[in-house]
Design a protein that fits this description.
mainly alpha, 135 residues, single chain, 4 helices
Length: 135
């Protein structure tokens, strides 16, 4: 149980690091270049994803007792599928909440990120992208 909590906590640190880069880049591109936030979410999402994948592979899900059940290439392929789903949900969810609740896109993005990160990203990364087997 402790190991599961530790992995979850590490995944949250990784998500936070990638998320901060993603979020700040989204705001920067939107505010300084006038790009619509649904587009800047995609661009920020790519930068955040690179950080998130790297930290998760080298720190969060790395284990001395278990090994990854797939190669780096297969992990990247799986991660890209999760990333595309995540970016689509974050972009459309942010637009939906901003329009429906008439809130600032930055607030809507934070609400959407919390849902997508916990319900989709963590689960798929742990059990599919970085799946482990006994060594």
């Amino acid at each position: 149980m402790f190991n599961s909590l530790l992995i979850f906590a590490k995944a949250q640190v990784s998500a936070f690091l990638g998320g901060i880069a993603d979020y700040l880049l989204m705001i920067f591109i939107t505010e300084f270049f006038g790009v619509h936030y649904t587009i800047s979410i995609v661009l920020g999402g790519i930068a955040g994803a690179i950080i998130n994948f790297s930290v998760n592979r080298k720190w969060t899900f790395l284990s001395k007792e278990l090994i990854y059940d797939s190669s780096l290439g297969k992990q990247l392929s799986r991660f890209l599928i999760v990333l595309l789903m995540s970016i689509l949900l974050k972009s459309s969810g942010t637009y939906f909440f901003a329009s429906l609740l008439n809130t600032d896109y930055r607030i809507s993005r934070l609400m959407t990120d919390a849902l997508v990160s916990l319900l989709l990203n963590y689960t798929l990364q742990k059990h599919w992208v970085f799946k482990k087997v006994k060594s």
